[in-house]
From TrEMBL:
Residues 9-175 form the Alcohol dehydrogenase iron-type/glycerol dehydrogenase GldA domain. Keywords: Oxidoreductase. PANTHER family: ALCOHOL DEHYDROGENASE YQHD. Its cofactor is Fe cation. It holds the Pfam family ADH_Fe_C. This is Aldehyde reductase. GO terms for cellular component: cytosol.
Length: 385
């Protein structure tokens, strides 16, 4: 096992009716800004519950944080907070609202150009406003991690940052609040969580059976529960299992002490920045090709994955690996997330532009062995046409 630091201060309040507990976790004298997205929380009653739970506090709202939150929009929230002297943020929504809130929290008192927070990947943050979250879409793990991804539309740049100062103080996870998710977002959430586990598990062995078995358990749970959520959207237990899976997939636990990949995510971010695809759609396109092209470097873990996650134990090594990768791709399709560039009206003609963006963001030696060069990314994309 590799050396590691594990730190996660986020308090989780999980279960039915937990929004009512907001009053216990938001300081009584806080001047609160509630941040949210395009309005799903208004139509499904979550907003009213939040306001009722915050009764008695100074509360303002900021709406319109878009999927793949934009720097341009988030800076408007920063202005509002400075003007109104607000001091506590509450993100209510999916990963985009939570990521956006993390950026806002870090930018409010930042001296200098806030875009450099993204350029320096968060290393230059020295303070952040405290914030909590109410999660309505299980997918990113942002509710219990210190990462955030922000898009600057004018530059077509989607960039990530992280810093310990932007862990949420608390996150409320009520699985019943995910009943109103559109089918597309249920699929997206399961695929994103699956990809997060794979980025931390599908590398090379370092004798880490605890992390491996946690990871395999999360993958198997997603494989079992994901299709149930599509078939019975109001099954509470299914939603609860998926929600907790997605949180554990990216809260630092399974990634502690093991090599990590993340090449699929980095290539995927360029696809979103250039063509507006949903985050999980990009992962469904890129991940199968990434595994096929990098089969040799990942051979030992691919065989373990085939056996333990998919129960594939017969046949030659190559046949088992190929089957496991195909089963992975089929699972994404079963969750309603298409896995080819051509499914999104993209193709070979787009590959040069994607590689150019990777290069301009210095994404030229990705992966756990830093061997995912632009040539490797090209091969992956060619396989994904
Ligand atoms: O904006 P509203 O109206 O709320 O609608 C949203 C949005 O249109 C809707 N939605 C959310 N909860 C709902 C709901 N609709 C009905 N009922 C509900 N309960 O779903 C749509 C998508 O929301 P979004 O927040 O964009 O999705 P997701 O949670 O998948 O977040 C994606 C973003 O997170 C980033 C991605 O890159 C992307 O920008 N990621 C963040 C990570 C992190 N912080 O660790 C890691 C991930 O790899 C990922 O990169
Ligand atoms: Zn992701």
């Amino acid at each position: 096992m590799l050396n590691f630091d594990f730190y996660n201060p986020t308090q989780i309040l999980f279960g039915k009716g937990r929004i009512a507990d907001l009053a216990k976790v938001v300081p009584a004298d806080a001047r609160v800004l509630v941040l949210y997205g395009g309005g799903s929380i208004k139509s499904n009653g979550v907003f009213d519950e939040v306001m009722a739970a915050l009764a008695g506090r100074t509360v303002q709202e900021f709406s319109g944080i878009e999927p793949n939150p934009s720097y341009e929009t988030l800076m408007q929230a920063v202005e509002l907070i400075r003007k109104e002297k607000l001091d506590f943020l509450l993100a209510v929504g999916g990963g985009s609202v939570i990521d956006g809130t993390k950026f806002v929290a870090a930018a409010v008192n930042f001296e200098g150009d806030p875009w450099t927070i993204l350029e320096k990947r968060g290393r230059n943050i020295t303070s952040a406003l405290p914030f909590g979250t109410i999660l309505t879409l299980p997918a990113t793990g942002s509710e219990m991690n210190d990462g955030s991804v922000v898009t600057r539309k004018s530059l077509q740049a989607k960039m990530a940052f992280s810093n310990k100062l932007v862990f949420p103080k608390f996150s409320i996870l009520d699985p019943a609040k995910t009943f109103t998710l559109p089918v597309r977002q249920i699929g997206n959430g399961v695929v994103d969580a699956y990809a997060h586990v794979m980025e931390q598990y599908m590398t090379y062995p370092v004798n880490s059976p605890v992390q491996d078995r946690f990871a395999e358990g999360l993958l198997q749970t997603l494989i079992e529960e994901g299709p149930k959520a599509l078939a019975n959207p109001e099954d509470y237990d299914t939603r609860a299992n998926i929600m907790w899976c997605a949180t554990l997939a990216l809260n630092g636990l399974i990634g502690a002490g093991v090599p990590q990949d993340w090449a699929t995510h980095m290539v995927g971010h360029e696809l979103t920045a250039l063509y507006g695809l949903d985050h999980a759609q990009t992962l469904a396109i890129v991940l199968p090709g990434m595994l096929r092209v990098r089969k040799e470097g990942k051979r030992a873990k691919l065989l373990q994955y085939a056996a333990r996650v998919w129960g594939i134990t017969e046949g030659s090594e190559d046949a088992r690996i190929d089957q496991a990768i195909q089963r992975t791709q089929d699972f994404f399709e079963k969750m309603g997330v298409k896995t080819r560039l051509s499914d999104y009206q993209l193709g070979a003609q787009n590959i040069d532009a994607i590689l150019k963006h990777l290069e301009s963001h210095r994404m030229v030696t990705l992966g756990e062995q830093r061997d995912v060069t632009l040539d490797v990314s090209r091969k992956v994309l060619e396989l994904s046409v």
